[in-house]
From TrEMBL:
InterPro entries: Acyl_CoA_acyltransferase, GNAT_dom, Rv0428c-like_C, SH3_Rv0428c. SUPFAM superfamilies: Acyl-CoA N-acyltransferases (Nat). Residues 202-336 form the N-acetyltransferase domain. This is GNAT family N-acetyltransferase. Gene3D superfamilies: 3.40.630.30. It holds the Pfam family SH3_Rv0428c. The lineage of its organism: Bacteria, Bacillati, Actinomycetota, Actinomycetes, Kitasatosporales. GO terms for molecular function: acyltransferase activity, transferring groups other than amino-acyl groups. It comes from Streptomyces sp. R44.
Amino acid sequence: MEITGGGRLEVRITSADVGKRVSVRYVTDSAEPGEKFTDAVGVLTSWDAGVLLITRKSGESVRIAESALVAGKVVPAAPARRRGPSATFPELARATARAWQPVESEALGEWTLRAADGFTRRANSVLPLGDPGLPVAEALTHARAWYAARKLPAYVQTATGAEGTQELLCAALDRHGWRREVSAEVRIAALAPIGDLDADVSAVRLSRTVDEPWLRRYQRFSGDEEASPAVRSVLASGPSVWFASVAGTGEVPAAIGRCVVDGRWAGFMAVEVDPGQRRRGLATSVMTALARQALDEGASAAWLQVEADNDGARALYDGMGFAPHHHYHHYRWAEA
């Protein structure tokens, strides 16, 4: 990184640049051996009491003493992807939400409070896609009370790493005592190449409804009959929902998957394979069969969500052409 003025490094950012994407160089003990400086690129989310907070696209926050800065400048938003579908964060956030709908929801300005008897964080968290109509601190207090009334932990789902994402809200959550519990990538790809994969789809069965064998393979379903109505409700939600399964040796499928077709988007979820039958191409077969169905319904773009530590799934999706669009995170109220 070169930030120079008359051949010298310069700090060209101030506290007035909070909310902008910046690139900085600073002195740190954690630099590589033989180096004096470390670089950071991300959104400047605060500059208080001589300390800068920069949120990287992954959601990781970096605290830098103002006295350690040696260079800094405002930089443009990350360049748009050159291949695959184009997508704004709001468009994709709304599509992913429509594919995983709660049992109960309530609007708080442009925030949505969602609950589904505790089945998954996504269906039991605040989705903040705009102004809540209240100061953030008051909105978060309201959300905590709303979830407490339902005997659920309070979560807020946020996003980082794309134009229009929520780095400032992430910093506010941190200041107000909320802690990030889990992060994942939202990835996108062109749909046609997935449908064109050389995969054996002859054994893949597609259905409009989720059945008991499918649920037995689904790792997020505990088998609790009291929770079953909420699980089934969330899984069945979405504009055009399809369930895929490949028969196993017993009553439990060898592989399953779920796809929601929504206009140009096809969202892939719950792709799971019996651990004893992995590396046989079953996940690819499931994805390909669902992609072909979505193409028949007019979709042209694909999305999915994958946790950062799921190396096997990330490798599979890399091979299918999926690339990261943004990261999403769940913040939980850290009760005293």
